[in-house]
Amino acid sequence: MVPGARTLIAALVALGLSGASFDRARADEPIEIFDAHLHYNWEPTPYYQPDEVLALLKRHRVTGILATSRPNKGTHLLVDAKPDGLQIVPFIRPYRVRPDIQTWFKDPVIFELVQEEYKRGYYRGVGEFHLSGQAADTEVVKKTVDFAVAHDLYLHAHADDEAVEILMRHNPSARIIWAHTGFGLKTDRVAEMLAKYPKLWGELSYRSGIVGSGGALTPEWRALFERFPDRFLLGSDTWVNERWAAYGEIIAGYRAWLAQLPPATAAKIAHRNARALFADAR
Fold first, then answer.
1. 266 in a structural domain
2. What are the tens digits of pLDDT across the range 214-242?
3. DSSP string of 214-234, one letter each residue
4. Band of residue 14 on the pLDDT scale cut at 50, 70, 90
5. How far apart (Å, rounded) are the C-alpha atoms in residues 188 and 163?
6. 154 alpha carbon, distance to own chain's centre
7. Residue 13 covered by a domain
8. Domain carrying residue 161
9. Helix (H) or strand (E) holding 251
């Protein structure tokens, strides 16, 4: 053997082994998550300071967030932090205080708030906002939908299917992220809505029926994910302190049923769909 060959071969073997170990390490990493429903509310009091929020997200391998807050101060703080390794997609929350949930859709001052916040120049959507049935059929809501379409913004709607239909009727070009995907709505109706509206995406926080006994994906939801793999997002919905306290459990719960899907489908729902929607955000 040529002098030094043994050393070279040993080095190559070691490199190959270390590469294999590296690949295994990456494969063992939990799937990254884009949290497409995160509230960092400052009313009444934030559960974590901004640096604690960012540390929590990093700890659970959350690499992107759809950030909103009530009032919008919390979102400003997260955006201004400019964290490495975290994509922040800010949405305008049309609320100043919690009671606005019940009245925003008929309050012209809220539309002025949306317009004023938009001037910050970094927002990618409006919401999460709450609507039920005919409450969506107001001038303020239509103005908000038209404003979103005119400025290339998404709408994040906590709404029943009737309200979603009205939002789409206000402006067929609207792009809607459907918070909670109808809560307990039957999967047949969810499929009907997704088929009817190509610019509708389902966000899955608080969505019932996805898993059954023992944490297994139900056949209905497995079929829905297989039929519409590009149309679902995940979210924590940290609207109260208890959700922040349980953040790790919420994310772990998602990973448990994502692991039951084909890897490509799981990756789309976990983060790729959100990345595709917000590819132009920081």
1. yes
2. 999 999 999 999 999 999 999 999 999 99
3. GGPBPHHHHHHHHH-TTSEEB
4. very low
5. 18
6. 12
7. no
8. 30-277
9. helix 247-258
What pTM was estimated for this model as a whole? 0.90
| Nearest in space to 46 (alpha carbons), one of 71, 66, 21, 25 | 71
202 near 194, Cβ under 8 Å? yes
- Tell me which amino acid residue 240 is: V
Report whether 56 contacts 110 (CB < 8 A). no
The answer to whether residue 12 is domain-embedded is no
- Picking from 5, 1, 2, 62, the residue whose alpha carbon sits closest to that of residue 31 is 62
Closest CA to 185 of 196, 175, 194, 197: 194
Q: Apex CA 175: angle with CA 170 and CA 176, to 5°? A: 90
Q: Using alpha carbons only, give the angle 130, 209, 273 rounded to the nearest 5 degrees.
A: 65
What number is the average pLDDT over the span 130-134? 98
CATH code assigned at 170: 3.20.20.140
pLDDT at 280: 78
- CA dist 103 and 198 (Å) reads 29
Query: Distance (Å, rounded) from C-alpha 23 to C-alpha 36?
Result: 29
Residue pair 222/261 in contact (Cβ under 8 Å)? The answer is yes
Overall domain count for the chain = 1
Could you tell me which residues come within 8 angstroms of residue 160 by beta carbon, excluding any fewer than 6 positions away?
Answer: 131, 132, 133, 182, 185
- Average confidence score pLDDT of the chain: 92
| Percent helix / strand / coil, the chain, rounded to 5 | 50, 15, 30
Span 22-32, average pLDDT: 64
7 within some domain: no
Beta carbons of 144 and 172 less than 8 angstroms apart: no
* Phi-psi sector, 85: left (phi>0), alpha (psi -120 to 50), beta: left
The structure tokens listed for 25 are: 């390490």
